[in-house]
Write a structure and sequence with these properties.
Elements (H helix, E strand, L loop, with lengths): L1 H26 L2 H8 L6 H20 L2 H9 L6 H25 L1 H7 L6 H26 L3 H32 L12 H17 L3 H4 L8 H35 L2 H18 L1 H18 L5 H27 L1 H4 L14 H17 L1 H5 L4 H25 L1 H26 L6 H20 L5 H22 L1 H10 L4 H4 L2
Length: about 500
């Protein structure tokens, strides 16, 4: 029974992972495009990094934990799932609409405060984008609740393809057309390429909203005020949790321009932001895992078998994220070409940021104990403490060590959250996690990483050969120690009939 559950989870994660990992991989096409077309010394990519950090923070505020709350109440006895959906979607939609109106009314003072007085339209465009994203978050949650992983993946990938296609036109095709057909391209200005990045995002986000017409039609169930009150009582700690959690991810990118003001701050932030993109393979894995795991946990029974399953999932999550960590660091000699060489000085942050993302994924996995017993305020406390650690490291050490302090701040912040959640959770709702295996795989990963760092070979080809051998050592240990995991993977990816009969 447990293996069947894990097999189902693996299948769902594979589909969500397809949209997340392939989508993010395709989005990587934009990283070399931006870094090769926007010089590091211009600071333009620093502006992109900074504004997208603000949108990530605002998205948490505008959704205020309603994704998780929707799952919780949709599986509650006596609650109509359609009513829970329409109530959560309309609440988020109303808050998002008010937000856009307020930004438009107070655009000038907001732009001045954020140091974007030269381009206030950047702020307004991003406000509309994040409002649409917040509303779509509940619509995507509905797809996950209904196990419509294919439609989920299709819409996510469609956005990526539209975004990439339009960006390729703006950066590669439009400049040539401007010269050959100036009358046709009178609207295009080469110096405004950073602004076009935001405009393209807005167009694509708006078009994807049209794909949710069937889900939007279910808003006819209206907003249940009594239900909304219950949902808000449940979700406000999740908002604090989300705020602290997202600040752990973006506070460094938001604060950097204040700690290191002027052009220098924009340049350094651009380098840091570009290199962090390489480390985001870990964010892809944890996001795909989250999309499949939330409905899986909230829809399950609270029994001994379920706790054993959660413990296994934790172990498997650690194994695969560490494998991904090693894959990235081992193949860094070729992955670094994702960004232009004048951004390479920031590559040393990649292993630190990836390990911080692993801690964040483990923390997310651990977080279900307080969500399932409706004590979500614990998560707010843990994340707030982690955020304080991160901000303290940033403000104390960034002036001296630059963006390296940002990377270590995230590592420390997530590490603190992870440790606190584990120890309190084991007292409140204990789960028999396999700590011995977890420590073994972490130790093996660190050992292989330092072995790789200590080997210096001038030939890139032979470096990759040696690093591949080290990666295979880790993979061999997985196959040797984790027979159950091999069985789960076989069930989630069935062999063709002719092979099954052999």
């Amino acid at each position: 029974m447990a293996e069947n559950k894990l097999g189902s989870l693996a299948k769902q994660t594979a589909i969500y992972g397809l949209s997340s990992i392939i989508g993010r991989f395709l989005n990587y096409l934009l990283v070399p495009l931006y870094t090769y077309k926007i010089a590091a010394e211009s600071g333009g990519y620093g502006i992109v990094t900074n504004l997208y950090a603000y949108t990530a923070l605002l998205l948490v505020i505008l959704t205020f934990g309603m994704e998780t709350t929707f799952f919780r109440f949709s599986n509650k006895e006596g609650v109509n799932p359609d009513k829970a959906f329409s109530t959560s979607a309309l609440a988020v939609g109303f808050v998002s609409l008010v937000f856009v109106v307020l930004v438009s009314v107070f655009l000038k003072p907001i732009s001045n405060a954020l140091d974007y007085s030269a381009h206030p339209e950047f702020v307004e465009i991003m406000a509309i984008i994040v409002a649409l994203d917040a509303f779509q978050a509940i619509l995507f949650a509905r797809l996950r609740y209904e196990n419509k992983a294919i439609k989920f993946a299709t819409l996510k990938l469609l956005f990526i393809f539209l975004n990439i296609g339009m960006n390729l036109f703006i950066f590669l095709v439009a400049p040539g057309l401007k010269e050959s057909h100036p009358a046709l391209m009178g609207w295009y200005e080469t110096s405004y390429q950073v602004g076009y990045i935001f405009i393209v995002n807005l167009i694509c986000t708006g078009l994807i909203t049209l794909g949710f017409i069937p889900e939007i039609s279910k808003l006819r169930f209206g907003l249940d005020r009594a239900l909304l009150k219950q949902m808000l009582n449940y979700t406000w700690p999740l908002l604090l949790l989300g705020l602290a959690g997202i600040l752990n991810q973006v506070a460094d990118k938001i604060c950097y321009r204040f700690i290191v003001p002027g052009k220098e701050g924009e340049v350094q932030l651009g380098i840091y932001g570009a290199c962090v993109k390489i480390a985001m393979i870990m964010a892809m894995i944890t996001q795909a895992f989250r999309y499949a795991y939330e409905p899986f946990v909230f829809g399950g029974k609270r029994d001994k078998e379920d706790k054993q399953t959660q413990a296994k999932v934790m172990k498997y999550f650690i194994i695969f994220t560490l494998l991904a960590f090693l894959a990235v660091v081992m193949y860094m000699p070729i992955l670094k070409y994702i960004i232009k060489s004048d951004y390479w000085e920031g590559l040393r942050v990649v292993p630190i940021v990836m390990m911080a993302e692993i801690f964040m994924g483990i923390y997310f996995n651990l977080s279900f104990w307080y969500k399932l017993i409706d004590e979500t305020w614990w998560g707010a406390i843990f994340s707030a403490i982690g955020c304080i650690v991160l901000l303290a490291i940033n403000f104390i050490f960034v002036p001296r060590y630059g963006y390296m302090a940002c990377a270590w701040g995230g590592f420390a912040g997530y590490g603190v959250c992870m440790v606190l959640s584990y120890f309190v959770g084991q007292k409140k709702a204990p789960i028999p996690y396999d700590l011995k295996s977890a420590f073994f795989y972490f130790a093996l990963t660190v050992a292989l990483y330092f072995v790789q760092k200590s080997i210096h070979i001038e030939s890139t080809l032979w470096t990759l050969v040696v690093n591949t051998a080290l990666l295979l050592v880790f993979f061999a240990f997985i196959c040797w120690r984790e027979k159950d995991l091999v069985k789960v993977m076989k069930k989630s990816v069935p062999l063709p009939p002719e092979n099954e009969n052999k």
